[in-house]
Amino acid sequence: MSKSLGKIVPFLFLVIALAIASFTRPNFSFASDSLTKVLQSVFWIENGFSDQGIYYPGKDIDPNYNFFYFKHSYNLQINKNGSLIAPFPFLNTILITPFVYLHWQSGIVYLGAFLFWLNSFLIYRITKRWWIFLVILFFTPLLQHYLAFSDIAFASIFLSFFLTTFFKKPDFSFLSAVSVLFAIFSLFLRTEVLLLYILLFMIQLYLLFRNKAKVKRYVGNVHRLYVISLILFVYVATNYLVYDSILGPRFDNNKTGIFRLELDVIQKWKSLLFWGNARLGLLGYSPWLIILCVLYFFFHPERKTSIEKKLFLIWLVLVVIVTFLSPNDSNIDWGTRYYTCFSIFPILLLSHFKWKRIVGIKKSILLFFLCIGLLYSAYINFKVWKEMKNISVQIGELVNNLGEDPADVYVVEDPAIANSLGVLHIRSSIFYGNPTEVVSKLSDQLKGKRVRFLLFPMANLAKESDPFWKEISKDANCIFPPLNLKKISMFSALCKL
Q1: Rounded (10°) angle between helices 193-210 and 174-189
Q2: In 3D, which of 74, 101, 96 has the Cα closest to residue 85?
Q3: Is the pLDDT of residue 286 over 90?
Q4: Residues facing residue 492 across a β-bridge
Q5: Could you tell me the pTM of the whole model?
Q6: Is the pLDDT higher at 168 or at 163?
Q7: Are 92 and 154 in contact (CB under 8 A)?
Q8: Residue 362: pLDDT above 70?
Q9: CA-CA distance, 387 to 383, in Å (whole number)?
Q10: Which of 70, 130, 355, 455 could form a disulfide with 462 if both were Cys (CB 3.0 to 4.6 A apart)?
Q11: Can you tell me the distance from the alpha carbon of 242 to that of 253, in angstroms, rounded to the nearest whole number?
């Protein structure tokens, strides 16, 4: 590739990544995990950058968080200061807070697109192959993960930088110090990175005893072991001192879901590794990866001794372990976010595979199935990008509709509606629970406030004739304005209690 083209191609793919981010309507793309991270940042800002928790506009009315959706969603505990223990890493809160402080939450999504491009550019600089941009953008689920999960975006680029600098060629320089710091950051951002470091530690320990006679390699193994030990020590010590837990609050919140051997968990394992949940899985929902496995298992010319084969086995072991320990198959693509930090391995393996060693009909068959896998992966990506846009449009439509006649308080009982209120959670008191229970327990605090109840049409109370509405109408003026969105209708009751 010419020098001029070598400069144009990376810039072009940056523009494409930002354009896809814009296509997903980032202003209203915050729900569930991404919204919770924003609420953590708002809490930190509102408390003078001195405490951790989740922002809850309704806390004055509901001080014990009895009707706070995110407390129930993540099964969170209250700390000694009366705040909820934040489920996501504090480091991620620090990194995204500038955008929240400037009231530019959509900037977090665009930052994710930029970090995705930066990670792709790093791999491009290593491989010197322009088509690597195409593979990463269209044939892996990385972009949607970077856009939707800021902690994954940061952790992935930090880990990739560490693996391609210090770990590749261990020395002690300013660049190495930065890469080690990034490695520590990546572990605090994503717990699954701990598995990689433990695996690398075991491998380096084995190589240390094996390479005693080879001084240069021996010294490199010692340096790597020292750095990994330092990373693990900092992580464990910090979590123990700050949270009184050696693996941190994120692990504590999820451990009940990890150590469970039940039918639904087994189904998720199958779905994440092979197929299920309305799509073909195959090691990360990128079906071409199964062809990569075939290549390295059966057709690699140096099956036992090559570094590529070792990297392949490391990646495969990580994928399987992460699947078993994090069986989160929430929808069409998000389960694979747990693999994102390790994505550098299969991409480098694909770029370094020695295709010239395979000839004849075998090569044609393998290339045919590889192309089929790549095309199916691209289809999944386009489908997910479109779905991300549809979700954002639906959230935006609901929030804008409610903004035409805003209430003081919102009451919802369905988690789908709670999630669909998006950034409204930042500026409005939203209570999650059965409306009768909410009104019964918070009746004194809600007096004089305009309360809007939002229910799906099939809900028990979604009828104007229900006795509940007749009961509260004795002391309140209730109207039932229709809430008709493009794809869904909701039952709405607006009462001044």
Answers
A1: 130
A2: 74
A3: no
A4: 454
A5: 0.90
A6: 163
A7: yes
A8: yes
A9: 6
A10: 455
A11: 16
